Amino acid sequence: MAGDTERIEKEIAQAREDLAKTLDQLAVKANPQRLADDAKNKAIAIVNTPAVKYGLAGVGAVVVVLVIRKIVR
Fold first, then answer.
1. Which are the contacts of 61, defined by CB distance < 8 A and separation ≥ 6?
2. Domain count across the chain
3. How far is residue 36 CA from its own chain's centroid?
4. Is the pLDDT of residue 1 over 80?
């Protein structure tokens, strides 16, 4: 009987440790600052791809030309 009680207490202690570790991992994953940083890094990575970078440069050049034309007229 005493062995069963000790075994159950050890299992409860182990379950508490496992739960604490899981909660710590969830806290790290759900950290708003980390989530914002991850989103920012992904956006920067997408913008830095050649197709997007050159596309944005082209759009910028067209806007500059249109603004200059509007000022000149």
1. none
2. 1
3. 6
4. no
Residue type for 21, please?
Answer: K
Domain range for 24: 1-72
pTM for the predicted model, two decimal places: 0.53
Question: What pLDDT digit, counting tens, does each position of 26-61 carry?
Answer: 998 899 999 999 999 999 999 999 999 999 999 999
Tokens 């830095």: give the residue.
48
Helices (H), 1-49: 2-29, 32-47
